[in-house]
Design brief:
Number of domains: 1
CATH superfamily: Response regulator
Strand content: 15-25%
CATH architecture: 3-Layer(aba) Sandwich
Helix content: 25-40%
Strand order of the largest sheet: 2-1-3-4-5
Number of helices: 4
CATH topology: Rossmann fold
Shape: globular
């Protein structure tokens, strides 16, 4: 892991999708750590406080709401939440959260990540 690259947490219960996404992130110039469920994500977020952005499913494998899980426990983390094709939740998302459709299109994901990593991107505030 190169320390000068942004660190991204990927929460994805489908192992092949997760492995491909991690590889694409590394190839795209990001560092990435992974979690397959909410419990693993909680561990990764506690272990790696330098995580800048979380990419996660709208529903994590153990039926946890991915968006609520992150926004309730880590309100300072930026997030990209993935929804199944045909779903457009963007009007209901907090200001510092973006959505992306599945299957992932890496060019679109990379654009969102780079946009969110700019200094003027809003962060959520703990309520």
């Amino acid at each position: 892991m190169k320390l000068d690259r942004p660190l991204i947490l990927v929460i994805e219960d489908e192992i092949l999708v997760r492995a491909i996404l991690i590889a694409q992130l590394f190839d795209g110039g990001f560092n990435a750590v992974e979690a397959g469920n909410a419990r693993d994500a909680e561990y990764m977020l506690a272990t790696y406080p330098q995580i800048e952005i979380v990419i996660g499913d709208a529903v994590i494998s153990d039926q946890t709401d991915g968006l609520d899980f992150i926004t309730e426990h880590w309100p300072d983390k930026k997030m990209i939440v993935a929804f199944d094709a045909g779903t457009d939740p963007s009007c209901d998302l907090p200001k510092a959260v973006r959505s992306i459709g599945k299957p992932y299109a890496f060019a679109e994901l990379s654009d969102r990540l780079n946009e969110m990593l700019t200094a003027d991107w809003p962060r959520r505030r703990a309520g």
